[in-house]
Amino acid sequence: MKNSSGEVIVDFCFRSAQGKAIKNRQPLRAFLKRAGRIILAGGALAFIPSFVTAPCAHAQDQKPQPNWKDRDEYDAFQKVQTTTDPKGRLDALKAWEDKYPTSEFVAMRNQYYLDTLSRLASSDPSQRQALLNKAQDVLKTDPKNANAQYLIALWGPIVGGASPSPDLAGQVESAAHAFIGDSDQAFADANKPPNMSAADWTKVKVSRVALAHNALAWAAASKKDFPTAESEYKESLTVNPDSGQTSALYARMLYEEKDDKKYPEALFQYARTAQYSGPGPAQSATGRQQALDFFNKLYKTYHGSDEGKDQVLAEAKTSALPPAGFTISSIAAKMAADADATNARIKADPSFALWYSLKVNLTGDQGPAFFTNSVKDYELPGGANGVKNFSGTILTVEPADKPTRVTLGIEDPTKADATLLFTTPIPTAALSKIKVGEKIEFSAEADSYTKDPYMLTFKDPEIPGVELAPVVRKPGRKKK
């Protein structure tokens, strides 16, 4: 039926204490507007629910509709509807429930409870458990209620924190799984509010399905099931890449696992947190700066330098997840690889083995005493362990005119760790073999050393195959 303005009129029924049916005539527009406030506010799902009060029966083949017990119950409902202050509405709901605990409109009342408590929960932590309890009550009679499922997935992790009870973790897990599973039905086109665009409707679905995956990650992490938690965070970022907050949660979890293999992914997510500023949920400007500062510190600690850092930041700015094969090499892995290579070289090269042994002793705590007692003025290698000469790559020959100083890289052909000093300048004829880039062998008396940077200096060496100016040398100490 329509009124004079062409609006659809609905007769909402209640029954008096004597069982007499009474009508309350209202425009459908007004009722739906109120219902819309329920479902659009405070975190409740944005779709027209199934609890809208039914019109009076006008045909015998209609199913029986719920009825008000009396006029007082209807007035109690009207009080709930007309009270806009959440605290006042909660009081009105409790008054209605206290007087009419077995109302035929319990389902509708519970939806009002969910909306009202969700509004209060954002600023009043004491209402959060009450909201979870009411959502659980709703699911007992309406297991597919998407509002209740979502609110448990949203508020359960906030209430539970890092160490939730097994019961709460289980409730969140069940609700989140159900919400994801029912999301296509809940967000069907038929449920879209008429004043919402299809694009915005899809955004609501995407953001809330992603949040449900976050809830599953939280529940898994609370049980130390990190593989599942990681999978859920990745799924959340796949569903909704526009969420710096999810990246922040994922980064923190990966970092707190203290697993070196997880640090590259953690670093990427910290970079994403620092770089992402919208349109979806993002950290505050302060939070982003803190994430960037931590990323910079952790990257250098883990990698050993800033090399490659800017590339990671650039990739994280445009993608919520790292590309396939993404990795960041760690300084620990590099040191382990270097140690393996050094050990292999020691086994294969007796000359290097002796050189490396000298370095280890000279750079240790007893280095000065070891040098004085076992190195200075000794002829090295001196035949120790059957080694007659050291070998290295020439890095410098100085000065250019009449050179008397040559540096070599023995352990690393690009880094000087040995110096050869000549009392008499190197003959011009010898410079064809003693030049930068050439590899030579030598033996000589040790003269001095520095620990950091490490350098062992020799005087007047002998170089096989190279004729040098004769030098009068005092007999040096010999290794026994």
Describe the structure.
It contains 16 helices and eight strands. The chain is of the alpha+beta class and 480 residues long. It has a domain of 96 residues: OB fold (Dihydrolipoamide Acetyltransferase, E2P) (Beta Barrel). Helix 2 runs antiparallel to helix 3, helix 4 packs antiparallel against helix 5 and helix 14 packs across helix 15.
Order of SSEs, N→C?
A: EEHHHHHHHHHHHHHHHHEEEEEE
Q: What is the number of helices?
A: 16
Query: Can you name the CATH architecture of one domain?
Result: Beta Barrel
Number of strands: 8
Structural class: alpha+beta
Unreliable segments of 5+ consecutive residues: 1-61
Helicity range of the residues? 40-55%
Named CATH topology of one domain: OB fold (Dihydrolipoamide Acetyltransferase, E2P)
| CATH hierarchy, class of one domain | Mainly Beta
Mean pLDDT: 87
Distance between the termini: 117 Å
Beta-strand percentage range: 5-15%
List keywords for this structure.
alpha+beta; 16 helices; 480 residues; 5-stranded mixed beta barrel; two-stranded antiparallel sheet; disordered N terminus; 8 strands; OB fold (Dihydrolipoamide Acetyltransferase, E2P)
Secondary structure layout:
Elements: E1 9-15, E2 21-27, H1 28-40, H2 71-82, H3 86-99, H4 106-121, H5 128-141, H6 146-160, H7 166-186, H8 198-222, H9 226-239, H10 244-256, H11 263-275, H12 285-303, H13 309-318, H14 331-348, H15 350-362, H16 367-374, E3 379-380, E4 390-398, E5 405-409, E6 418-421, E7 439-450, E8 455-462
Parallel strand pairs: 6-8
Antiparallel strand pairs: 1-2, 3-7, 4-5, 4-7, 5-6, 7-8
